[in-house]
Protein backbone atom coordinates (compact mmCIF):
# COMPACT_ATOMS: atom_id res chain seq x y z
CA UNK A 1 0.00 0.00 0.00
CA UNK A 2 1.46 3.31 -1.08
CA UNK A 3 1.23 6.51 0.92
CA UNK A 4 -1.50 8.31 -1.03
CA UNK A 5 -2.82 10.64 1.63
CA UNK A 6 -6.13 8.79 2.00
CA UNK A 7 -5.10 5.90 4.23
CA UNK A 8 -6.51 3.20 1.97
CA UNK A 9 -5.71 1.72 -1.42
CA UNK A 10 -7.19 -0.46 -4.13
CA UNK A 11 -5.72 -3.85 -4.90
CA UNK A 12 -3.46 -3.55 -7.93
CA UNK A 13 -4.01 -5.58 -11.09
CA UNK A 14 -2.45 -4.94 -14.47
CA UNK A 15 -4.29 -7.51 -16.57
CA UNK A 16 -6.71 -6.63 -19.34
CA UNK A 17 -9.70 -6.73 -17.02
CA UNK A 18 -8.48 -3.61 -15.22
CA UNK A 19 -6.72 -1.91 -18.09
CA UNK A 20 -7.83 -0.72 -21.49
CA UNK A 21 -10.12 -3.07 -23.31
CA UNK A 22 -8.72 -5.75 -25.54
CA UNK A 23 -9.64 -3.78 -28.62
CA UNK A 24 -7.17 -1.05 -27.70
CA UNK A 25 -9.74 1.54 -26.70
CA UNK A 26 -7.89 4.81 -26.13
CA UNK A 27 -10.98 6.88 -25.31
CA UNK A 28 -10.12 8.61 -22.02
CA UNK A 29 -13.77 8.59 -21.02
CA UNK A 30 -14.47 5.04 -22.18
CA UNK A 31 -14.64 3.72 -18.65
CA UNK A 32 -17.39 6.22 -17.87
CA UNK A 33 -19.53 4.70 -20.64
CA UNK A 34 -18.69 6.94 -23.61
CA UNK A 35 -18.49 5.58 -27.11
CA UNK A 36 -18.81 1.91 -26.16
CA UNK A 37 -20.62 -0.50 -28.42
CA UNK A 38 -24.17 -1.74 -28.04
CA UNK A 39 -25.38 -4.95 -26.51
CA UNK A 40 -23.99 -7.09 -29.29
CA UNK A 41 -21.50 -4.74 -30.89
CA UNK A 42 -18.41 -6.73 -29.93
CA UNK A 43 -19.87 -10.19 -30.49
CA UNK A 44 -19.49 -12.29 -33.59
CA UNK A 45 -22.37 -14.07 -35.27
CA UNK A 46 -21.44 -17.32 -33.52
CA UNK A 47 -21.66 -15.65 -30.11
CA UNK A 48 -25.05 -14.19 -30.93
CA UNK A 49 -26.45 -17.51 -32.15
CA UNK A 50 -25.01 -19.30 -29.13
CA UNK A 51 -26.64 -16.84 -26.78
CA UNK A 52 -29.93 -17.14 -28.64
CA UNK A 53 -29.74 -20.91 -28.34
CA UNK A 54 -29.15 -20.68 -24.60
CA UNK A 55 -32.11 -18.40 -24.31
CA UNK A 56 -34.36 -20.81 -26.24
CA UNK A 57 -33.24 -23.72 -24.06
CA UNK A 58 -34.93 -22.12 -21.05
CA UNK A 59 -37.91 -20.74 -22.90
CA UNK A 60 -40.21 -23.62 -22.02
CA UNK A 61 -39.90 -23.13 -18.30
CA UNK A 62 -40.08 -19.37 -18.74
CA UNK A 63 -43.37 -19.65 -20.60
CA UNK A 64 -44.85 -21.59 -17.69
CA UNK A 65 -43.54 -19.36 -14.93
CA UNK A 66 -45.94 -17.12 -13.03
CA UNK A 67 -44.16 -14.00 -14.21
CA UNK A 68 -44.47 -15.07 -17.86
CA UNK A 69 -48.20 -15.51 -17.32
CA UNK A 70 -48.46 -11.98 -15.93
CA UNK A 71 -49.42 -12.91 -12.36
CA UNK A 72 -46.46 -11.15 -10.74
CA UNK A 73 -44.34 -9.84 -13.56
CA UNK A 74 -46.46 -6.90 -14.64
CA UNK A 75 -45.97 -7.72 -18.31
CA UNK A 76 -42.29 -8.68 -18.05
CA UNK A 77 -40.78 -12.15 -17.85
CA UNK A 78 -38.20 -11.30 -15.20
CA UNK A 79 -36.91 -14.88 -15.08
CA UNK A 80 -35.82 -14.53 -18.68
CA UNK A 81 -34.57 -10.96 -18.14
CA UNK A 82 -32.37 -12.05 -15.23
CA UNK A 83 -30.99 -15.02 -17.15
CA UNK A 84 -30.05 -12.90 -20.17
CA UNK A 85 -28.59 -10.14 -17.98
CA UNK A 86 -26.30 -12.67 -16.27
CA UNK A 87 -25.22 -13.97 -19.66
CA UNK A 88 -24.37 -10.39 -20.66
CA UNK A 89 -22.33 -9.90 -17.49
CA UNK A 90 -20.41 -13.15 -17.87
CA UNK A 91 -18.03 -14.11 -15.09
CA UNK A 92 -17.77 -11.29 -12.57
CA UNK A 93 -14.77 -11.37 -10.27
CA UNK A 94 -15.67 -11.44 -6.55
CA UNK A 95 -15.01 -8.22 -4.66
CA UNK A 96 -11.77 -8.46 -2.70
CA UNK A 97 -11.60 -7.67 0.99
CA UNK A 98 -9.15 -4.80 0.46
CA UNK A 99 -11.53 -3.24 -2.04
CA UNK A 100 -14.41 -3.46 0.44
CA UNK A 101 -12.20 -1.73 3.01
CA UNK A 102 -11.26 0.95 0.49
CA UNK A 103 -14.91 1.65 -0.37
CA UNK A 104 -15.88 1.79 3.30
CA UNK A 105 -13.11 4.27 4.08
CA UNK A 106 -13.87 6.35 0.99
CA UNK A 107 -17.54 6.61 1.98
CA UNK A 108 -16.59 7.55 5.55
CA UNK A 109 -14.31 10.32 4.30
CA UNK A 110 -16.82 11.55 1.72
CA UNK A 111 -19.57 11.75 4.36
CA UNK A 112 -17.29 13.73 6.66
CA UNK A 113 -16.51 16.27 3.93
CA UNK A 114 -20.11 16.49 2.73
CA UNK A 115 -21.15 17.64 6.20
CA UNK A 116 -19.40 20.94 5.40
CA UNK A 117 -21.45 21.47 2.23
CA UNK A 118 -25.02 20.48 3.19
CA UNK A 119 -27.30 20.47 6.19
CA UNK A 120 -28.87 17.15 5.17
CA UNK A 121 -27.36 14.56 7.53
CA UNK A 122 -25.37 11.49 6.54
CA UNK A 123 -27.21 8.28 5.74
CA UNK A 124 -25.23 6.25 8.27
CA UNK A 125 -26.10 3.18 6.27
CA UNK A 126 -24.15 0.37 4.68
CA UNK A 127 -21.18 1.05 2.41
CA UNK A 128 -21.26 -1.68 -0.24
CA UNK A 129 -18.53 -2.74 -2.64
CA UNK A 130 -20.30 -4.48 -5.53
CA UNK A 131 -19.39 -6.29 -8.71
CA UNK A 132 -21.71 -6.37 -11.73
CA UNK A 133 -23.67 -9.38 -10.46
CA UNK A 134 -24.21 -7.65 -7.10
CA UNK A 135 -25.49 -4.57 -8.93
CA UNK A 136 -28.00 -6.66 -10.89
CA UNK A 137 -29.23 -8.59 -7.86
CA UNK A 138 -29.52 -5.58 -5.56
CA UNK A 139 -31.11 -3.12 -7.99
CA UNK A 140 -33.52 -5.47 -9.80
CA UNK A 141 -36.34 -5.09 -7.21
CA UNK A 142 -36.40 -1.31 -7.71
CA UNK A 143 -36.09 -1.65 -11.49
CA UNK A 144 -39.20 -3.81 -11.39
CA UNK A 145 -41.12 -0.93 -9.85
CA UNK A 146 -40.00 1.30 -12.70
CA UNK A 147 -40.42 -1.16 -15.56
CA UNK A 148 -43.52 -3.19 -14.66
CA UNK A 149 -46.13 -0.42 -15.09
CA UNK A 150 -44.57 0.59 -18.39
CA UNK A 151 -44.61 -2.99 -19.70
CA UNK A 152 -48.16 -3.65 -18.52
CA UNK A 153 -49.60 -0.54 -20.13
CA UNK A 154 -47.54 -1.11 -23.26
CA UNK A 155 -49.04 -4.58 -23.63
CA UNK A 156 -52.51 -3.14 -23.18
CA UNK A 157 -51.77 -0.41 -25.72
CA UNK A 158 -50.63 -2.98 -28.27
CA UNK A 159 -53.91 -4.87 -27.94
CA UNK A 160 -55.92 -1.63 -28.09
CA UNK A 161 -54.12 -0.70 -31.31
CA UNK A 162 -55.44 -3.83 -33.02
CA UNK A 163 -58.72 -3.61 -34.96
CA UNK A 164 -61.72 -4.88 -33.00
CA UNK A 165 -62.28 -7.66 -35.54
CA UNK A 166 -58.73 -8.91 -35.04
CA UNK A 167 -59.13 -8.97 -31.25
CA UNK A 168 -62.33 -10.99 -31.58
CA UNK A 169 -60.68 -13.47 -33.95
CA UNK A 170 -57.77 -13.97 -31.55
CA UNK A 171 -60.01 -14.98 -28.67
CA UNK A 172 -58.07 -17.49 -26.55
CA UNK A 173 -54.85 -16.53 -28.34
CA UNK A 174 -54.77 -13.27 -26.36
CA UNK A 175 -53.19 -15.00 -23.37
CA UNK A 176 -50.44 -16.47 -25.53
CA UNK A 177 -49.86 -13.09 -27.15
CA UNK A 178 -49.39 -11.53 -23.72
CA UNK A 179 -46.93 -14.26 -22.77
CA UNK A 180 -44.91 -13.68 -25.95
CA UNK A 181 -44.94 -9.95 -25.34
CA UNK A 182 -43.78 -10.56 -21.76
CA UNK A 183 -40.90 -12.70 -23.03
CA UNK A 184 -39.94 -10.14 -25.67
CA UNK A 185 -39.90 -7.41 -23.04
CA UNK A 186 -37.85 -9.64 -20.75
CA UNK A 187 -35.26 -10.29 -23.48
CA UNK A 188 -34.79 -6.58 -24.17
CA UNK A 189 -34.68 -5.69 -20.48
CA UNK A 190 -32.13 -8.42 -19.81
CA UNK A 191 -29.75 -7.07 -22.45
CA UNK A 192 -30.16 -3.51 -21.14
CA UNK A 193 -29.63 -4.43 -17.48
CA UNK A 194 -26.63 -6.60 -18.34
CA UNK A 195 -24.98 -3.67 -20.08
CA UNK A 196 -25.88 -1.27 -17.28
CA UNK A 197 -24.34 -3.63 -14.72
CA UNK A 198 -21.03 -3.63 -16.61
CA UNK A 199 -20.92 0.17 -16.92
CA UNK A 200 -22.34 1.33 -13.58
CA UNK A 201 -20.01 3.02 -11.10
CA UNK A 202 -22.47 3.28 -8.21
CA UNK A 203 -25.79 1.88 -7.10
CA UNK A 204 -27.77 4.81 -8.52
CA UNK A 205 -25.62 6.32 -11.26
CA UNK A 206 -28.52 7.88 -13.10
CA UNK A 207 -30.18 9.69 -10.20
CA UNK A 208 -32.79 6.95 -9.87
CA UNK A 209 -33.29 5.35 -6.41
CA UNK A 210 -32.66 1.76 -7.52
CA UNK A 211 -30.13 0.81 -4.82
CA UNK A 212 -31.48 -0.60 -1.53
CA UNK A 213 -32.51 2.05 0.97
CA UNK A 214 -29.62 3.43 3.00
CA UNK A 215 -26.95 1.67 0.94
CA UNK A 216 -24.05 3.64 -0.56
CA UNK A 217 -22.78 1.21 -3.18
CA UNK A 218 -19.69 1.58 -5.38
CA UNK A 219 -18.38 -0.83 -8.02
CA UNK A 220 -14.59 -0.77 -7.38
CA UNK A 221 -13.59 -2.73 -10.51
CA UNK A 222 -15.40 -0.22 -12.76
CA UNK A 223 -14.00 2.71 -10.77
CA UNK A 224 -10.47 1.36 -11.24
CA UNK A 225 -10.99 1.22 -15.00
CA UNK A 226 -12.26 4.80 -14.99
CA UNK A 227 -9.29 5.98 -12.95
CA UNK A 228 -6.81 4.29 -15.30
CA UNK A 229 -8.43 5.73 -18.43
CA UNK A 230 -8.55 9.22 -16.92
CA UNK A 231 -5.01 9.04 -15.57
CA UNK A 232 -6.13 10.03 -12.08
CA UNK A 233 -5.17 8.30 -8.83
CA UNK A 234 -7.53 5.48 -7.89
CA UNK A 235 -8.17 6.90 -4.44
CA UNK A 236 -9.19 10.32 -5.75
CA UNK A 237 -11.66 8.81 -8.20
CA UNK A 238 -13.04 6.47 -5.54
CA UNK A 239 -13.69 9.26 -3.02
CA UNK A 240 -15.30 11.42 -5.73
CA UNK A 241 -17.59 8.61 -6.89
CA UNK A 242 -18.44 7.69 -3.28
CA UNK A 243 -19.27 11.33 -2.52
CA UNK A 244 -21.69 11.61 -5.44
CA UNK A 245 -23.48 8.45 -4.35
CA UNK A 246 -23.51 9.51 -0.68
CA UNK A 247 -25.01 12.88 -1.66
CA UNK A 248 -27.80 11.21 -3.64
CA UNK A 249 -28.57 8.84 -0.77
CA UNK A 250 -28.88 11.79 1.61
CA UNK A 251 -31.65 13.12 -0.59
CA UNK A 252 -33.36 9.75 -1.01
CA UNK A 253 -33.38 9.11 2.75
CA UNK A 254 -34.08 12.55 4.20
CA UNK A 255 -36.53 13.82 1.54
CA UNK A 256 -39.35 11.33 2.21
CA UNK A 257 -41.54 12.28 -0.75
CA UNK A 258 -38.78 12.20 -3.39
CA UNK A 259 -38.55 8.47 -4.17
CA UNK A 260 -42.31 8.08 -4.53
CA UNK A 261 -42.53 11.17 -6.71
CA UNK A 262 -39.91 9.74 -9.09
CA UNK A 263 -41.70 6.39 -9.29
CA UNK A 264 -45.14 7.96 -9.68
CA UNK A 265 -43.87 10.05 -12.59
CA UNK A 266 -42.92 6.83 -14.39
CA UNK A 267 -46.27 5.26 -13.51
CA UNK A 268 -48.17 8.31 -14.75
CA UNK A 269 -46.23 8.23 -18.00
CA UNK A 270 -47.03 4.52 -18.38
CA UNK A 271 -50.75 5.00 -17.76
CA UNK A 272 -50.98 7.19 -20.85
CA UNK A 273 -49.07 4.96 -23.24
CA UNK A 274 -50.39 4.66 -26.79
CA UNK A 275 -49.04 2.77 -29.78
CA UNK A 276 -48.88 4.72 -33.02
CA UNK A 277 -49.00 2.44 -36.09
CA UNK A 278 -50.15 5.03 -38.60
CA UNK A 279 -46.80 4.99 -40.43
CA UNK A 280 -47.06 1.20 -40.82
CA UNK A 281 -50.59 1.46 -42.20
CA UNK A 282 -49.47 4.14 -44.65
CA UNK A 283 -46.54 2.04 -45.82
CA UNK A 284 -48.86 -0.95 -46.29
CA UNK A 285 -51.21 1.09 -48.44
CA UNK A 286 -48.28 2.09 -50.62
CA UNK A 287 -47.75 -1.57 -51.50
CA UNK A 288 -50.85 -1.30 -53.66
CA UNK A 289 -51.54 -5.02 -53.44
CA UNK A 290 -54.83 -4.56 -55.27
CA UNK A 291 -52.96 -3.66 -58.45
CA UNK A 292 -51.76 -7.22 -58.91
CA UNK A 293 -48.58 -5.94 -60.60
CA UNK A 294 -45.72 -8.14 -59.28
CA UNK A 295 -43.03 -5.65 -60.31
CA UNK A 296 -44.76 -2.73 -58.59
CA UNK A 297 -45.20 -4.76 -55.43
CA UNK A 298 -41.54 -5.83 -55.54
CA UNK A 299 -40.43 -2.21 -55.91
CA UNK A 300 -42.60 -1.16 -53.00
CA UNK A 301 -41.18 -3.94 -50.81
CA UNK A 302 -37.68 -2.75 -51.69
CA UNK A 303 -38.52 0.74 -50.48
CA UNK A 304 -39.85 -0.66 -47.22
CA UNK A 305 -36.65 -2.53 -46.40
CA UNK A 306 -34.85 0.59 -45.22
CA UNK A 307 -37.77 1.89 -43.17
CA UNK A 308 -38.28 1.55 -39.43
CA UNK A 309 -41.49 -0.44 -39.25
CA UNK A 310 -41.61 -0.80 -35.49
CA UNK A 311 -44.61 0.78 -33.73
CA UNK A 312 -43.95 4.21 -32.24
CA UNK A 313 -44.52 4.62 -28.52
CA UNK A 314 -46.02 7.82 -27.15
CA UNK A 315 -47.78 8.91 -23.98
CA UNK A 316 -50.76 11.15 -23.44
CA UNK A 317 -49.13 12.21 -20.16
CA UNK A 318 -46.12 14.04 -21.58
CA UNK A 319 -45.99 16.29 -18.50
CA UNK A 320 -44.94 13.26 -16.45
CA UNK A 321 -41.78 12.93 -18.55
CA UNK A 322 -41.04 16.63 -18.09
CA UNK A 323 -41.52 16.31 -14.34
CA UNK A 324 -39.24 13.26 -14.23
CA UNK A 325 -36.52 15.03 -16.22
CA UNK A 326 -36.75 18.09 -13.97
CA UNK A 327 -36.56 16.01 -10.78
CA UNK A 328 -33.56 14.06 -12.07
CA UNK A 329 -31.85 17.30 -13.06
CA UNK A 330 -32.46 18.79 -9.60
CA UNK A 331 -31.18 15.65 -7.85
CA UNK A 332 -28.06 15.33 -9.98
CA UNK A 333 -27.46 19.09 -10.00
CA UNK A 334 -27.69 19.31 -6.22
CA UNK A 335 -25.40 16.28 -5.76
CA UNK A 336 -22.86 17.70 -8.18
CA UNK A 337 -22.83 21.12 -6.55
CA UNK A 338 -22.43 19.91 -2.96
CA UNK A 339 -19.74 17.41 -4.00
CA UNK A 340 -17.79 20.15 -5.77
CA UNK A 341 -18.18 22.36 -2.71
CA UNK A 342 -17.03 19.58 -0.37
CA UNK A 343 -14.15 18.18 -2.44
CA UNK A 344 -13.05 21.09 -4.63
CA UNK A 345 -10.29 22.31 -2.33
CA UNK A 346 -9.45 18.87 -0.97
CA UNK A 347 -9.02 16.77 -4.13
CA UNK A 348 -7.19 18.54 -6.99
CA UNK A 349 -8.82 16.41 -9.69
CA UNK A 350 -12.40 17.28 -8.68
CA UNK A 351 -12.93 19.62 -11.64
CA UNK A 352 -11.65 17.00 -14.12
CA UNK A 353 -13.85 14.31 -12.61
CA UNK A 354 -16.90 16.56 -12.72
CA UNK A 355 -16.24 17.32 -16.38
CA UNK A 356 -15.87 13.61 -17.13
CA UNK A 357 -19.19 12.91 -15.45
CA UNK A 358 -20.85 15.70 -17.42
CA UNK A 359 -19.59 14.29 -20.70
CA UNK A 360 -20.84 10.87 -19.77
CA UNK A 361 -24.25 12.28 -19.03
CA UNK A 362 -24.32 14.36 -22.22
CA UNK A 363 -23.37 11.56 -24.59
CA UNK A 364 -25.19 8.73 -22.86
CA UNK A 365 -23.76 5.25 -22.69
CA UNK A 366 -24.96 2.43 -24.90
CA UNK A 367 -26.64 0.78 -21.94
CA UNK A 368 -28.66 3.89 -21.09
CA UNK A 369 -29.76 4.19 -24.71
CA UNK A 370 -30.75 0.53 -24.80
CA UNK A 371 -32.73 0.90 -21.60
CA UNK A 372 -34.58 3.93 -22.92
CA UNK A 373 -35.66 1.88 -25.93
CA UNK A 374 -37.08 -0.79 -23.63
CA UNK A 375 -39.17 1.41 -21.35
CA UNK A 376 -39.78 4.31 -23.73
CA UNK A 377 -38.28 6.86 -21.31
CA UNK A 378 -34.79 8.25 -21.60
CA UNK A 379 -33.57 8.35 -18.01
CA UNK A 380 -31.36 11.36 -18.45
CA UNK A 381 -31.46 14.90 -17.17
CA UNK A 382 -30.64 17.29 -20.01
CA UNK A 383 -30.56 20.38 -17.77
CA UNK A 384 -28.23 19.28 -14.99
CA UNK A 385 -25.80 22.11 -15.74
CA UNK A 386 -28.65 24.61 -15.33
CA UNK A 387 -29.64 22.92 -12.06
CA UNK A 388 -26.06 23.16 -10.76
CA UNK A 389 -26.05 26.89 -11.50
CA UNK A 390 -29.45 27.35 -9.82
CA UNK A 391 -28.25 25.62 -6.64
CA UNK A 392 -25.04 27.66 -6.71
CA UNK A 393 -26.90 30.96 -6.97
CA UNK A 394 -29.35 29.85 -4.28
CA UNK A 395 -26.46 29.11 -1.93
CA UNK A 396 -24.90 32.49 -2.54
CA UNK A 397 -28.23 34.24 -2.03
CA UNK A 398 -29.62 32.54 1.08
CA UNK A 399 -27.02 30.04 2.32
CA UNK A 400 -26.84 26.25 2.42
CA UNK A 401 -29.43 25.78 5.18
CA UNK A 402 -32.20 27.71 3.41
CA UNK A 403 -31.21 26.10 0.10
CA UNK A 404 -31.65 22.61 1.52
CA UNK A 405 -35.00 23.50 3.09
CA UNK A 406 -36.36 23.71 -0.45
CA UNK A 407 -36.48 19.89 -0.40
CA UNK A 408 -38.99 19.92 2.49
CA UNK A 409 -41.95 19.82 0.10
CA UNK A 410 -42.30 19.25 -3.65
CA UNK A 411 -44.15 22.54 -4.06
CA UNK A 412 -41.04 24.39 -2.85
CA UNK A 413 -38.79 22.94 -5.57
CA UNK A 414 -37.75 24.86 -8.68
CA UNK A 415 -39.81 24.13 -11.78
CA UNK A 416 -38.63 23.37 -15.31
CA UNK A 417 -39.07 27.07 -16.12
CA UNK A 418 -36.84 28.03 -13.19
CA UNK A 419 -34.00 25.94 -14.66
CA UNK A 420 -34.05 28.21 -17.71
CA UNK A 421 -34.62 31.42 -15.75
CA UNK A 422 -33.51 30.98 -12.11
CA UNK A 423 -33.86 34.66 -11.19
CA UNK A 424 -37.54 34.30 -10.26
CA UNK A 425 -36.80 31.35 -7.99
CA UNK A 426 -33.90 33.19 -6.32
CA UNK A 427 -36.09 36.27 -5.83
CA UNK A 428 -38.69 34.07 -4.14
CA UNK A 429 -36.11 32.71 -1.72
CA UNK A 430 -34.92 36.22 -0.92
CA UNK A 431 -38.49 37.45 -0.34
CA UNK A 432 -39.17 34.54 2.02
CA UNK A 433 -35.96 35.29 3.90
CA UNK A 434 -37.11 38.89 4.32
CA UNK A 435 -40.55 37.83 5.49
CA UNK A 436 -38.97 35.47 8.00
CA UNK A 437 -36.97 38.34 9.52
CA UNK A 438 -40.12 40.46 9.85
CA UNK A 439 -42.02 37.59 11.49
CA UNK A 440 -39.24 37.11 14.02
CA UNK A 441 -39.28 40.78 14.97
CA UNK A 442 -43.08 40.78 15.23
CA UNK A 443 -42.94 37.68 17.45
CA UNK A 444 -40.49 39.46 19.76
CA UNK A 445 -42.90 42.40 20.03
CA UNK A 446 -45.82 40.11 20.89
CA UNK A 447 -43.75 38.37 23.54
CA UNK A 448 -42.82 41.72 25.06
CA UNK A 449 -46.48 42.75 25.24
CA UNK A 450 -47.49 39.43 26.82
CA UNK A 451 -44.79 39.84 29.49
CA UNK A 452 -46.32 43.14 30.64
CA UNK A 453 -43.82 45.48 29.07
CA UNK A 454 -46.43 47.76 27.52
CA UNK A 455 -43.99 50.07 25.81
CA UNK A 456 -41.55 52.89 26.35
CA UNK A 457 -41.71 55.34 29.26
CA UNK A 458 -43.47 58.72 29.09
CA UNK A 459 -40.09 60.46 28.70
CA UNK A 460 -39.27 58.17 25.77
CA UNK A 461 -42.64 58.95 24.21
CA UNK A 462 -42.03 62.69 24.53
CA UNK A 463 -38.61 62.29 22.86
CA UNK A 464 -40.25 60.24 20.12
CA UNK A 465 -42.72 63.08 19.45
CA UNK A 466 -39.86 65.52 19.16
CA UNK A 467 -38.28 63.24 16.54
CA UNK A 468 -41.49 63.14 14.52
CA UNK A 469 -42.41 59.59 15.57
CA UNK A 470 -46.06 58.77 16.17
CA UNK A 471 -45.69 56.31 19.05
CA UNK A 472 -41.98 55.92 19.72
CA UNK A 473 -41.90 52.15 18.75
CA UNK A 474 -39.49 50.99 16.07
CA UNK A 475 -40.37 47.78 14.25
Total strands: 4
What string, H for helix and E for strand, traces the elements in order? HHHHEHHHEHHHEHHEHHHHHHH
The helix/strand class is mainly alpha
Distance between the termini: 64 Å
What would the principal axes of the Cα set say about the shape?
globular
Q: Look at the structure and give the mean pLDDT.
A: 76
Which residue ranges are poorly predicted, with pLDDT under 50 across at least 5 consecutive positions? Answer: 14-45, 55-73, 453-475
Short summary:
With 475 residues, this protein is mostly helical.
Describe the structure.
It contains 19 helices and four strands. The chain has 475 residues and is mainly alpha-helical. The protein has a two-stranded parallel ribbon with strand order 1-2. It is globular and about 90 Å long.
What characteristics describe this protein?
62% helix, disordered C terminus, 475 residues, Zinicin_2, hydrolase, Zinicin_2_N, two-stranded antiparallel sheet, globular, mainly alpha, two-stranded parallel ribbon, Hydrolase, 19 helices, 4 strands
How is this fold's topology laid out?
Layout: H1 45-57, H2 59-64, H3 78-89, H4 97-114, E1 126-129, H5 132-161, H6 164-170, H7 173-199, E2 215-218, H8 220-230, H9 234-254, H10 258-271, E3 273-276, H11 278-286, H12 294-304, E4 312-315, H13 318-343, H14 350-363, H15 366-375, H16 384-405, H17 416-420, H18 423-450, H19 458-466
Parallel strand pairs: 1-2
Antiparallel strand pairs: 3-4
Helix pairs in contact: 3-5, 3-7, 4-9, 5-7, 5-10, 7-15, 8-9, 9-13, 10-13, 13-16, 16-18
